[in-house]
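hey so u asked for the seq, here:
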Amino acid sequence: MIEVKPRVFVFDAYGTLFDVHAAIARHRAVAGADADRFSEIWRIKQLEYSWVLTLAGQYVDFWSLTERALDYALARVPSVDRALRPKLLDAYRELDAFPDARLAVESLKARGARAAILSNGSPAMLDAAVAAAHMAELFDAVLSVDAVRMYKPRPEVYALVTSRFQITPQEVAFVSSNRWDVMGAAAFGFRPFWINRAKMPDEYFEHAPLQVLSELSALTSIGA
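ran it, structure tokens below
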């Protein structure tokens, strides 16, 4: 086990702490056989819009992108009833936290570490998700890209952490399930941990994670 004793553990929100496919899971029976494909398209387009806008020097908040991506998914997968749209958006505001999310953060806090969220999500989205998961008291900061009006993996986003905590990048353990986010964090100088639940193949080899973990609960042994 690699010994890492950072001052702050920073978590990505969507896909890492909160299950982005939980919204469709709550309505799977009504969504039908194409539910999983529909949810994948929704997520892919949500991220694609954030990257394209940032590359173009433009910004639209993440909730609006989530709505646009949902509309695209509904158009691409017409077997999913469009009447589900408001229910899916309501569910996305309060996504389920992964089962080990709270325990992982609690364990790190019990050891004296500070914890934060750094997310593409808008402040209102993050407030709703953290409150729904009953985790608000665990985080020393919840940081949104809305402050810099650009999306990950721009370095200006990761700099929100070092500015907020007045620390160097090397003092930050960054935790994400998104390999592209891990790449951005590594390029910035964070100590990145990749939560690879789906056992996806690696990529971005020039910016490797410090460690690959299968679940958030494995963080409790880091630096213990």
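The beta strands are 8-11, 114-119, 141-144, 172-176, 191-195, 211-213. The chain has nine helices and six strands.
lmk if thats what u needed
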